């Protein structure tokens, strides 16, 4: 029997206090405090905010799902085992691995390469409201936040006044961040490689990650992340985002593709079928029904940390309600990487980060919504998978769910793991994606 889903109705008698009022009022170019009220959605007209007191209801449902899951046996065995050296119940006791010597120089080298290749790399910010008007109902806090990212493109694309511009918005996975697309290693900086092939890319830290604002971890959820993606798509089309590069104005884009890695693909799917506003979809390293036993064990183990309230986003201070997906650096490496150069692994491992518990807790229910609505996605879809992915399997079965897509294509990258963009065969990822975009006139 499926446990009941907690109500997101603002008039829910379980919470007589009602939700905190959403931010209202006009927005100016430098006003990060307010955003106009979001328009009503034909998909979900219920209130998009859930008060903090409903955290207990959310956790009750998650606990029921945990008890019903076959993975609970593996989790119990894992939870009873002694922690590995350098780890704790909430993640690495001493934090992720340190950046290797030369990391600063590697970042400087990236800037030099981009300039030599006539590629612009513009810091950008988006003012968004953490609401949820998607079909995947789940609780959010309704507050206004700043999302930080970078627009990376051939200079000619940004400067060109003629012709239509296209951009791909990238959503990272639950255990990653914007860094995944911007690793300072030649051949592994995803957006640099796409720009060299003529394509514009927007990478962001989702709220709760990296340089973007961080809510209480239980105030974010997968549906809310998808709504924020929708708001960013709208701002890209209107050119209403902000650049943080002096003298560089925001430019509008006529076509927007949404691409996700790991559960960033789930965020992207939800956005695509809820709002029907993107021109193409790229699903990387994600299947709704194909998580491996390893992935399930780590998912539910991390979920137990969230059931205990999680920890502070940075381990010491700041908002609470966060958890690591992997316990320690070695789990992070073994779960995500395969056939990766040692230098690339050394640059990547220090970026291991906590994620908002609300994102993880809402992922299970969102899978059920996906099963009902993936068929409603009516745009071209590209699927990319690593052959040796330790966390995801069943790419062909996932592709088969997209019965409404105008066309689909699946590419498997030999010897690559879950982070296929970090594998030695990463150039195959770049080429397959660039060719697909060009073939559909999306860049």
Structural commentary:
The chain is α/β, with parallel strands linked by helices and 443 residues long. Helix content is 33%, strand content 15%. It contains 13 helices and 13 strands. The strands form 3 sheets. Strands 7-3-4-6-5-8-9-12-13 form a 9-stranded mixed beta sheet, with helices on both faces. A two-stranded antiparallel ribbon has the order 1-2. It has a two-stranded antiparallel ribbon with strand order 10-11. Strand 12, helix 12 and strand 13 form a beta-alpha-beta unit. Helix 1 runs antiparallel to helix 8 (293-307), helix 2 crosses helix 8 (293-307) and helix 7 crosses helix 11 (357-373). The protein is globular. The model is unreliable at 1-52 and 64-94 (pLDDT under 50).
What structural category characterises the helix and strand content?
alpha/beta
Average of per-residue pLDDT values: 84
Low-pLDDT segments, ≥5 res:
1-52, 64-94
How many DSSP E strands?
13
Indicate the radius of gyration in whole angstroms.
Answer: 21 Å
Shape: globular
Number of helices: 13
> Strand count, sense and closure of the main sheet?
9 strands, mixed
Helix content class = 25-40%
Query: How far is the first residue's CA from the last residue's CA?
Result: 46 Å
Query: What string gives the helices and strands in order?
Result: HHEEHEEHEHEHEEHEHEHHEHEHEH
Q: How much of the residues is beta strand, in percent?
A: 15-25%
Descriptive labels:
443 residues; alpha/beta; nine-stranded mixed β-sheet; two-stranded antiparallel ribbon; 13 helices; 33% helix; 15% strand; globular; disordered N terminus
């Amino acid at each position: 029997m499926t446990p009941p889903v907690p109500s997101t109705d603002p008039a829910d008698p379980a919470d007589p206090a009602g939700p905190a009022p959403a931010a209202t009022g006009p927005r100016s170019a430098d006003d990060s405090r307010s955003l106009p009220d979001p328009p009503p959605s034909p998909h979900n007209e219920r209130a998009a905010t859930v008060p903090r007191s409903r955290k207990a209801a959310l956790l009750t449902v998650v606990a029921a799902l945990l008890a019903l899951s076959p993975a609970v046996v593996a989790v119990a065995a894992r939870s009873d085992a002694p922690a590995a050296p350098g780890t704790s119940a909430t993640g690495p006791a001493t934090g992720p691995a340190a950046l290797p010597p030369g990391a600063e120089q590697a970042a400087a080298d990236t800037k030099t390469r981009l300039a030599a290749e006539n590629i612009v790399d513009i810091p950008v910010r988006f003012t968004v409201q953490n609401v949820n008007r998607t079909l995947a109902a789940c609780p959010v806090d309704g507050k206004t936040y700043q999302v930080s990212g970078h627009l990376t493109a051939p200079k000619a694309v940004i400067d060109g006044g003629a012709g239509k511009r296209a951009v791909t918005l990238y959503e990272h996975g639950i255990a990653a961040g914007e860094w995944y697309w911007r690793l300072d290693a030649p051949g592994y900086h995803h957006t640099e490689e796409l720009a060299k092939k003529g394509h514009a890319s927007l990478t962001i830290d989702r709220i709760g990650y990296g340089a973007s604002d961080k809510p209480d971890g239980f105030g974010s959820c997968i549906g809310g992340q998808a709504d924020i993606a929708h708001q960013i798509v709208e701002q890209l089309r209107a050119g209403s985002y902000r650049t943080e590069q002096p003298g560089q104005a925001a430019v509008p884009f006529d076509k927007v593709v949404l691409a996700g890695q790991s559960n960033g693909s789930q965020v992207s799917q939800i956005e695509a079928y809820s709002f029907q506003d993107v021109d193409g979809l790229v699903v990387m390293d994600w299947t709704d029904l194909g998580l491996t036993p390893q992935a399930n064990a780590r998912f539910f183990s991390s979920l137990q940390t969230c059931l205990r309230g999680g920890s502070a986003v940075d381990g010491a201070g700041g908002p609470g309600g966060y958890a690591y997906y992997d316990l320690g650096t070695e789990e992070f490496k073994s779960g995500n990487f395969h056939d990766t150069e040692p230098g690339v692994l050394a640059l990547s491992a220090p970026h291991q980060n906590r994620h908002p518990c609300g994102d993880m807790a809402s992922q299970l229910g969102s899978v059920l919504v996906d099963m009902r609505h993936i068929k409603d996605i009516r745009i071209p879809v590209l699927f990319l998978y690593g052959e040796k992915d330790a966390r995801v399997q069943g790419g062909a079965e996932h592709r088969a769910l997209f019965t409404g897509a105008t066309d689909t294509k699946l590419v498997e990258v030999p010897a690559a793991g879950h982070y296929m963009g970090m594998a030695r065969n990463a150039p195959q990822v770049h080429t397959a994606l660039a060719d697909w975009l060009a073939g559909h006139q999306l860049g």
